Amino acid sequence: xxxxxxxxxxxxxxxxxxxxEAERLRVDKELGNIRTCFKNEKVLTPYKKKKYVWKxxxxxxxxxxxxxxxxxxxxxxxxxxYPEKQVGYIVTSCLLNENHDFLKLAINTVRNDIIGRNETFxxxxxxLVGNIGGRDFAESLAPDVQKLLISSxxxxxxxxxxxxxxxxxxxxxxxxxxxxxxxDRMTQLLDERDLGVLxxxxxxxxxxxxxxxxxxxxxxxxxxxxxxRLARNQDVPQEYTYYGIPSPWLQVKAMRALQYFPxxxxxxxxxxxFEVLQRILMGTDVVKNVxxxxxxxxxxxxxxxxxxxxxxxxxxMSQCVALLGKFISVRxxxxxxxxxxxxxxxxxxxxxxxxxxxxxxxxxTSLKDPDISIRRRAxxxxxxxxDVSNAKDIVEELLQYLSTAEFSMxxxxxxxxxxxxxxxAPDLSWYxxxxxxxxxxxxxxxxxxxxxxxxxxxxxxxxxxxxAASKAREYLDKxxxxxxxxxxxxxxxxxxxxxxxxxxxxxxxxxxxxxxxKLPTVSTPTIPILLSTYAKxxxxxxxxxxxxxxxxxxxxxxxxxxIDVEIQQRAVEYFELSKKGAAFMDVLAEMPKFPERQSSLxxxxxxxxxxxxxxxxxxxAQQQPSNALVVANPQPVxxxxxxxxxxxxxxxxxxxSISQPNGTxxxxxxxxxxxxxxxxxxxxxxxxxxxGAVSTDQHGPSGTGGHADEVDGSAIVPVGxxxxxxxxxxxxxxxxxxxxxxDSGVLYEDPYIQIGIKAEWRGHHGRLVLFLGNKSTSPLTxxxxxxxxxxxxKLELSPVPDTIPPRAQVQSPLEVMNIRPSRDVAVLDFxxxxxxxxxxAKLRIPAVINKFLQPLQLTTEEFFPQWRALxxxxxxxxxxxxxxxxxxxxxxANLFNSFRVTICPxxxxxxxxxxxxxxxxxxxxxxxxxxxxxETDPADRTQLRMTVGSGDPTLxxxxxxxxxxxxxxxxxGSRALVxxxxxxxxxxxxxxxxxxxxxxxxxAMLAGLL
Amino acid sequence: xxKAVMMIxxxxxxxxxxxxxxxxxxxxxxxxxxxxxxxxSRPENVSNFLEIDSLFGPDSxxxxxxxxxxxxxxxxxxxxxxxxxxxxxxxxxxxLDKCFSNVCELDIVFNYSKxxxxxxxxxxxxxxxxxxxxxxxxxVEEISKLEAASNAISLxxxxxxxxxxx
Lengths: 1010, 166
Prior knowledge:
Radius of gyration of chain A: 35 Å
Radius of gyration of chain B: 17 Å
CATH class of chain B: Alpha Beta
Shape of chain B: globular
Number of strands of chain A: 16
Strand content of chain B: 15-25%
CATH architecture of the domain at 851-968 in chain A: 2-Layer Sandwich
Number of strands of chain B: 7
Shape of chain A: globular
Mean pLDDT of chain A: 79
Distance between the termini of chain B: 33 Å
Strand content of chain A: 5-15%
Structural class of chain A: alpha+beta
Order of helices and strands of chain B: EEHEHEEHHHEEH
Number of domains of chain B: 1
Oligomer: heterodimer
CATH architecture of chain B: 2-Layer Sandwich
Largest sheet of chain A: 6 strands, antiparallel
Largest interface: A-B, 87 and 74 residues
Helix content of chain A: 40-55%
CATH class of the domain at 851-968 in chain A: Alpha Beta
Number of helices of chain B: 6
Low-confidence stretches of chain B: 152-166
CATH superfamily of the domain at 851-968 in chain A: TATA-Binding Protein
Mean pLDDT of chain B: 86
Helix content of chain B: 40-55%
Largest sheet of chain B: 5 strands, antiparallel
Strand order of the largest sheet of chain B: 2-1-5-4-3
CATH topology of chain B: Beta-Lactamase
């Protein structure tokens, strides 16, 4: 560092540059110079090399790409002299990343420095590894670093670096630390006297326990000891006392580590800890010195988190709330900020909400704080604490704030206001008011799903319709209104404008003129809505209004040749329809009620949400019966799945159901169109599609015949307890398992009959069709099919004819509804007679849990908040599964995807882990997001740790067991007798096909697994 | 874990930056610019916290302190305590103060290499290494001595085993 004049001169040159261009020129010149020098190795003294490398780092910081000289930087690491070596280490760790090839070349040098006896070299090497060491380093260096850490002859300076270096290596490769051997060492390390080493060791511990707290349970009392030592200020050197607080960092770290242990069972440890916590909670005051304040409150807030985590006694909890109540009104903004943040976290704890509500006015004041950070926290807290009792106040505050809020907050604000209004509305007219105000004040930030939702409510609640119509009419009087307001008021007035007919200014022709004034200002997607409204107004004009007719027809004529096909089609069709008199009335009748939908808004918000308050909301949602508005039509209609979880998808389907032309009779059908059919509703032909109709395949299982033929005829598998007089073709269990993963195929076959199956699944509904084909030349008589349903499924099998004529096929539809999560299986008890032969079989129906899953791929931003929101059992269950069939990761990913649990690649930073997500549908749970994480052990592929979470405890358990079944090893190579499940069999058993087939066909592989 | 340490002057020029997750030069500059544009729009006497999810991804936090012409910035994830991070900035500044006796921006500009040494003694691989500025100073001075010594005598690397008996 001393005597690097060249670097100082260069920095000074850069400072003297008048503009960016001059700087660039100077940098380019310097880079050119360095490049030339590096080419001429001979004249390059180590000193010069060092100087240039520093310049490179400086240039790098300025934002210029330095794509050469890396080798030179790395080569300095092996320089014998300290200054060059030091530069080599520092610059390398700034310029290169862990995967850089040059770095691999340096591993040996680095290792030599670590195991060498020169402590300064050890420090340099540890710093490099701690900053950029990757897997390679973890594998070759972990034991050496461990030795340094536990060595009694090393100075603290080296040991504390070794601790953090080991942490890095552990993060890169968890196997770098052998749990069995290391747990005891770790415990001993926490007895360390030197607070520097102790702080680093505690950081290491935090990383270790976050991964596996059980193994390090002996460290728990040690952490409490550390806290006691610091709290009593025993053996704390003066230098480690920061503004009078004994090492706040160490206190914070120790409390952080404790938060990874689920509970503290030992009563005396618990007692000691609570004494310390009590002392911290009581003994912290707001003082003048900012730094002292920060330090003491760092400790205090960590203590609060720990208290919340430990779910302490009620008394202590209310003490915490009282403290937080104090904090949110202090002057010091940092404390106020953290007070709000922690209060939001506190919402998760039961019984304190009422205490928090007492602070509502103070929190609302924070919504006007000059600091946006604080305003955001206040918004989150208000959102989290809102319920029926205070919704009106809070939402109105939010609306008021909306006019002054900065743009970056408006979208979130309007979404939150809309959600709260929906969830906690005391009455529906208030809800309509709020949403219309929202559109009026912040139209740009009101997403489509917000206005779709209000339309749904108005449509489904007759009492609300006149009110909504008059409100919509009022807004139209404003001079400039947002386009979204045009859409929503046009829609509402088209449907319900006639309810206002007696009021002044609300006749059909007046409504038409005021709406038509807006048409020139709107964009293409709004025009079709206006056209539909015109048609409806025309229809409602009673008696006929020739004047209005003329005007509206002129509009239709005008758009007859519009380039936009949607507009054109509506114009043409409405024009023709409007001349049809009575038929016109029929076709344009009021829109049917919408099926009850789960609010897409709420889903959307949950994804946007921060962790803390989101989980608070979730938790409370589970605690109290939802006060959300109930759409009047409570029966979910078959064929229409509950809304999907993906925010982009739901609004779309709503959009379509609203924006489809209101003109066709099919829309009078109260069944909601299903998304599949809607997907092309905007296309000209799709209007004819009957919503909800599930097309039945007329052709029978012809496509599956080949599959049946392939099966080795000699593989005879008796069917459970049945005594059959016929040879079954194929393996029933195998067929069943194949059908668990696909939707059509052969369920059963013998010389006389083939039973095929074809299924469609939508949400928690399924429609299966059984195809019973008589292969023989004589009729099959006394055909009987009986369904033995498990408790969680509602099954309805259409009657099967008593006789199946020769060479004929009959179809029998089977309706399935999933009531709740379960792995039990439905059984078809089937029998027939052929002449004197009586054949019977009990067949499992492939209406299994994974059929009610819908693949769903989440992004990091979507996944983690949800994951964290599921705090632990019973919603989130973890299990170490042993005896897993060894699978490479890609194979395992295929396996998951095949049963519709979608792997989300790249979400987990550890490449040995998989995370997956899916949506489960059942009548009781509705659409429910399920998340899973599989942590594999690269060293032992037969075991893994699996964590499954969802919003429903039964679902979590069933799904976990289901996944486990899929992963567990099955006895190999036995073409043994496989009992078909006469009773629902949870553990599926089957034989794998040949290994060759396994390798390249995931399906076959899977069949083997099952 | 600490994700980045930045020192940016009030004109937006980076004076020192260190990222503990690897990032390309472009990404680093983008983040520095993004952080600066957030910082410079903040009034005085507000909290030291900033929401930064849009730049560093969910669950990231930022604390900063404004001293004269410089912003000291720490970006970190949910595993760290916000106020403790704020204290760490104070430790860093106090250490620099001891190093340069009343540190100012120019000291930081012209002692670029020493800044790295100091920072490396306080933050190590994204973790808090040392919070005791006396201890940090000791380590930094040792390094300075070593550099000076080996500039003078250019022979075998100096053994430091003698230090052990301190």
